[in-house]
Structures are given as structure tokens and as C-alpha cells.
Amino acid sequence: MPLAAPALAAGRDIAMPDILHRVGMNASPAKVYRALATLEGLSHWWIVGTTGDPSIGGTLHFRPEGGGFDMKVLESTPRRRVRWKCVGGPDDWVGTELIFRLKSRGGQTYVLFTHAGWREPVEFMHHCSTKWAVFLLSLVNWVERGEGRPHPYDVKIHPGD
Amino acid sequence: MPLAAPALAAGRDIAMPDILHRVGMNASPAKVYRALATLEGLSHWWIVGTTGDPSIGGTLHFRPEGGGFDMKVLESTPRRRVRWKCVGGPDDWVGTELIFRLKSRGGQTYVLFTHAGWREPVEFMHHCSTKWAVFLLSLVNWVERGEGRPHPYDVKIHPGD
Predict the structure, then answer these.
(1) B20–A121: do the CB atoms touch at under 8 Å?
(2) Does B97 lie at the interface with A, CB-CB under 8 angstroms?
(3) Global ipTM
């Protein structure tokens, strides 16, 4: 059964949909960048115990129990942008790109997030979209108050998540 | 400045991106459907004080302060699916479709959500994607525990949201 909704079926190119999100926080771009570009930061809002090399060309290792992701760092520009390519992990993720763009406006820093290059809008993509929202809100709470909820302490989005 | 990330620029059709989400809950499809297809349900997880006619062909009115949405009900199939077309609201929303598909599996009911037909991946779309995650988690908490957080009591995703 196709998972795409009926409205999607009429001749549209749905080959490469993206996950998009935006959050904002009371913090400087420099502080937000540190949360995205250091092992300490990533371990406090996304997945505990992040290892690897967060510099350009390095590879980050995220190892939740029973799975994991390896991300090659394509770009890491202080106060501006971080971009990874997934080089290890679930089949649906390998080859996708994750981009965090920082925008300073009205005294706050926004993060525009894109998880690009999905081949199909599979049900797992729906799940990951909702989980990214959860983790980006964890990023906000980590940056503003030191209260991140990285995996495995993250907000669950269904029983057994 | 284009808001699309660099990875999007290489000849891809990004004309009609969608917002996708999935949540699951310990409840019957009938109970989840009631939360999506009645004024009482919608008022308890999305926007307080929802009015209008939730039957097929009717129009629902959502009126947060300073704005609002009118949704024509295209489909409302008990335990299966609810589908709306936005006929009033922000320019970016008018003409888009919102689809809630229910799937029963492993003793829980999943809601696969699609907000389809966006013309461009504008920054507002990033914002709405994250807000839909927040509201779908409100749906879960309303259905499972009677603890929805509809607007204006919703989780904020940036200062001033």
C-alpha cells in the first residue's frame, strides 16, 4: 500500500522530500553553534555519549542502543551553519544530508533545520520528522537552561519509542 | 536570499514539499478519530474554542487570537481518516490539504499526518512543521490522559511564539 496520501498521487515529483523545522532561542549564535558543533553539545541535546571528530572532514558517531548514525562533517561555520552527510546508519538515512542554519533576528537565534535527500516519504520518515522536532526542542532547552533531553531521555512519541 | 539549503539547489523539484509526522498512542482508532473529528476533540488538543461543522462538506473554524484557519472537511471516515482543505487563513496555507490517517498496529493507534501542497519551503513552513509536532504530541496526551495543550496553552518553540 502506498504510504503517500491521496493528495500526493496526482503526477507530483515526490522523489526527494525533506524534513524541515525551525526553533528559536534566547542565546547568541556562538552559543547555539557550540551546541551543534561540539561533542559536549551534541551529547546534551541529541544522543548521549557522542564521539568522533566534529571538525570539517571528520566523522561523528552517535550510538543509541541497538543502532546508530555516522555523520561526516561537510561544513562547520561558526555562528552560521553546520552540515553533515549520513555515511552510516539506517538504509533510509545513508546518503541524506542534515543542515542546521543559524539566523540571528530580534535578539534571538533561530535554527532552520533540514534533513534532505530522503528517497521516499516512507512511514519512518514521518516518525523521524516528529522526532527531530522533539530533539530541536531539547536543543532549545539545553541552550537556554542546561536542560536538554538527549536520547535515551527524550520525549517519546509513541508507546515503545 | 533563498531559504532552501544548498543541498536542495541541484535541479530538484522542490515545488510542493509536504510536512510529515507520525505519533502513536495507547487508544482505540475510534477514540483517536473522535479527537480529530469533533469540536470537543479539536478544542482540546489543537486550538481552544473550535467552532463549525465537522461533518463531510462542512467547514471548521479555528480562531487563535490575531489569526485563524477555516478548514473544509473533505473526508471523515470513522477509525480511518480525516482530510481537510484550508479555505481561509495565512496565504501559505490556503489551498493546502491536511490529512490524518489512522493505523492500528501492535495494540496502539498511529496517526500519520500530512500537510500537503505547500508551494515553497518558506521559513514559515519550517515553523509550522515543528508546531505540528508539538500539537500532535498534545493530541497523544489528550487521548491517553486528558492532558492536551491546545493553543494558547501549547509548548512554545521560540521566544514570542
Answers:
(1) yes
(2) yes
(3) 0.90
